[in-house]
Amino acid sequence: MRKLISTGSPFEKTAGYSRAVVQGDWCFVSGTTGYDYATMTMPQTVEAQTRNCLATIAKALAEGGFDMADVVRAHYYITDQAYVDVVFPILGETFGDIRPAATMIVCQLNKPEMKIEIEVTALRRTA
Fold first, then answer.
1. Domain extents in the chain
2. Nearest alpha-carbon partner for 5 in 74, 63, 53, 55
């Protein structure tokens, strides 16, 4: 069974994607930037953007019947190498005990105000 999850972001309709797709015991969460979707604003700092990314991801996972502990793979995209040491502790707060397979890449993102984008894949844990 396939379930599409949306945050209500106008970007999802315009670009033709879902925040997350649940397929069986898997949940694939799209690359998520630091927007506050309630206000459609982007914080200035990479720290605040990282926390917004994680909150949006957690909400999408929960809507699909998953939680952060189900995350098995994470991709982190940052726009400046200097952000590595800034975001590692924030990511560790969420994933320190979960320890998914992860990759961090320094690259350009779609808009200049975007400093980080995170995508995850989750596999529902069984008893």
1. 2-123
2. 63
Residue type, 36: D
What predicted TM-score, i.e. pTM, was given to this entire model?
A: 0.93
pLDDT at 127 over 80: no
Q: 97: Cβ–Cβ under 8 A, 6 or more apart, which residues?
A: none
Angle between helices 46-63 and 84-95 (to 10 degrees): 30
Pure H helices in 2-116: 10-15, 46-63, 84-95
For the domain bounded by 2-123, which CATH number is listed? 3.30.1330.40
CA atoms within 13 A on the CB side of 13: 4
